[in-house]
Specification:
about 110 residues, alpha+beta, Glutaredoxin, two-stranded parallel ribbon, two-stranded antiparallel sheet, 4 helices, 4 strands, about 50% helix
Length: about 110
């Protein structure tokens, strides 16, 4: 399961950004049975918000897993689909988060 394989990496990012009020991690669960979500979250002690989103994912036909980075104004700045088991994924996510922060800071100065 690619989503489950991605969790440890997301947890590392969460730990890295835990003191940053400008970074929030949310997971959309696309399981058809929403009753399975909370027990899974509890069993794996997931440190992020998990939102049941089966209908949403079916409507959009989004591949799983998908990662989005959204700025403070709700603008999607990055969309990544699938799971990359290499270190490139982590580095790419860190770079993308910092880039969005830099763009937001620049926009605030204008």
């Amino acid at each position: 399961m690619a989503c489950s394989a991605e969790f440890p990496r997301i947890q590392k990012l969460i730990e890295l950004y835990k003191d940053r009020a400008d970074v929030l991690f949310i997971s959309f669960n696309s399981d058809a049975n929403p009753g399975l979500v909370q027990p899974f979250v509890k069993e794996h002690a997931l440190p992020f918000v998990v939102i049941p989103a089966y209908n949403y994912s079916e409507t959009l036909k989004v591949s799983v897993p998908s990662t989005w980075i959204v700025d403070g104004n709700g603008v999607v700045r990055l969309k990544a689909q699938g799971y990359d088991p290499t270190e490139k994924w982590e580095t790419g996510m860190k770079d993308a988060i910092e880039k969005v922060k830099a763009v937001a800071a620049s926009a605030g100065r204008g």
